[in-house]
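Fold it.
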Amino acid sequence: MKKILCGMWKKAAAFCVKKNVIVSAKRYGIDAMGAMAQGLFASLLIGTIIGTLGQQFDIPVLVEIGNYAKAVDGPAMAVSIGYALQAPQLVLFSLLTVGSAADILGGSGGPLAVLIIAILAAECGKLVSKETKVDILVTPFVTICVGVLLAMWWAPGIGAAASYVGNLIRWATELQPFFMGIIVSVVMGIALTLPISSAAICHTLELTGLAGGAALAGCCAQMVGFACMSFKENKVSGLISQGIGTSMLQMPNIVKNPRIWLPAILTSAITGPIATCVFGMEMNGAAISSGMGTCGFVGQIGLYTGWVQDVATGAKEAITAFDWTGMGLVCFVLPAVLCTLFGVFFRKIGWIKENDLKLPE
């Protein structure tokens, strides 16, 4: 019996390898999540930017375009995940339905539901792909049915759990703005530089209010910090690509020498509580903006949008010079100065060596 089970297991494993279904932390935790971030950027993120521009400059057509882009974030994320998993075309196209169902049924935890369910649906679709003479029926049938049934079963629970965690983080940050400001800022800053999506995390957990402000501070510390600290090696192109692009570009260098990450992490540990305790910086715009840092200045647009909404609802009397000062210091000035100073210190003690921060050509 043992030999029979062993033989069946080997055959199943060989079949999975043949169908390119490889279970690994890298494929699901890095490749799939990194691709999901791109899908999120190409839908919800760019839609938020376009819509915000339309609102601020009173251009209704841009608002409408932004709404269309934001409406397809679930399908966009699911297809991106399928692409990262090297799904065949019929599986890839079928994931549009799966992503839509998981995102809608997942509520505030939509992106997390899409990530989990799209992976399972894609892998199931790959297993049956081109195994029958009626592949055009079987593959989309299996992919869509597995995905939508899982969405109906799991997504509401995932959404409820994500919402609970987000509420807990916001509550803890309001209760202990100093310590939670440090924790949220450091963790979200690290998430932004890792090949995962800090924006998706903030969107999933609905990190707004003081917690959103702390998250934004941490993300800015990483982006602006790395951009300025590595100016010696990367010049203006590096300043732009990291400062308004992403600090994720430094990940290959961090893998080689993890100590180059310390200046940005220390900076986020300082700017986080400054945001929460000194300036009371709240992200009351879109939650996704909390995890964007200075990428396309989406974080700052989100802050400003929140101020405008608060003034309109009477929660805030007016946008003050103190608000603008807080944004400028927390998002730009302090990350640039502090991270550069930390970087100088670590260079002097030999923890950061020549070209450790050099971006690949």
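The longest helix spans residues 135-175.
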